[in-house]
Structure formats: structure tokens, C-alpha cells
Amino acid sequence: MMWGYDDQFHQNNHGWLMAGMGIFWLIVIGVVIWLVVRLSDRRLGHHPGHHGEHAMKHPDAHLGENSPRAILDRRLVNGEIDAEKYAEIKKLLEL
């Protein structure tokens, strides 16, 4: 009688053990995926918090030559607008 009880006891614990191992591997896989995403973001230059204050001061800095400020500067240099109009538009862009 005791042997049958032990077999049943081990079969019930085997189910919990399998469930625990499944949860363990899901956590391990999740951590690996998280690390891969995090490291790939760093390689591409997407650092969390990196854009913070700089992006607020210069929201179009990433546009380079096509930023509104660069276009405004070119218009002044090319004589399309005068210094007064330049200052007015520059003030509007900085808001």
C-alpha cells in the first residue's frame, strides 16, 4: 500500500516540477530577448535619456541641412529675406 502512495505522490510532484521548469525557461527567454533589444538599441544610437535636454532646445537638430533654421539661414544668405524678416521668423521658430 505504501508503494502505491509513493508513486502517486511522485506523479503529482512531477507535474509541479514541469510547470516550474516551464516558467523558469519563459523567464530566461524573456530576459535574453530584453537584453538583445536593449543592446541593439544602443548600437543604433537610441540611448534612453540621451535626447532629453538637447532635443528640447534643438528639436530639429536631427534634420541637419533641412531643418527650419538651416532653411531660414540659407534664405537670408541668398537674399530672399532681409535681416528684419530673418529675426522675426527666427523668433517664431524658437518658441
List keywords for this structure.
mainly alpha; 0% strand
Cα-atom radius of gyration:
31 Å
How many separate helices? 4
Q: β content, as a range?
A: under 5%
The ordered H/E elements are: HHHH
Let me know the largest β-sheet. none
Tell me the domain tally.
2
Structural class: mainly alpha
Helix content: over 70%
Quaternary organisation of the protein chains: single chain
> Per the principal axes of the C-alpha atoms, what is the gross shape?
rod-shaped
Give start-end ranges of low-pLDDT stretches.
none
Q: How many β-strand runs?
A: 0
Task: Determine the N-to-C terminus distance.
Answer: 85 Å
Taking all residues together, what is the mean pLDDT?
76
Can you offer a commentary on this structure?
This protein has 95 residues and is mainly alpha-helical. It has 2 domains: 1-50; 59-95, no CATH class. 74% of the residues lie in helices and 0% in strands. The protein is built from 4 helices and no strands. The chain has helices at 2-43, 52-57, 68-77, 83-94. α3 (68-77) runs antiparallel to α4. The protein is rod-shaped, with a radius of gyration of 31 Å. The termini are far apart.
In short:
With 95 residues, this protein is mainly alpha-helical. Helices cover 74% and strands 0% of the residues.
SSE topology sketch:
Blueprint: H1 2-43, H2 52-57, H3 68-77, H4 83-94
Helix pairs in contact: 3-4
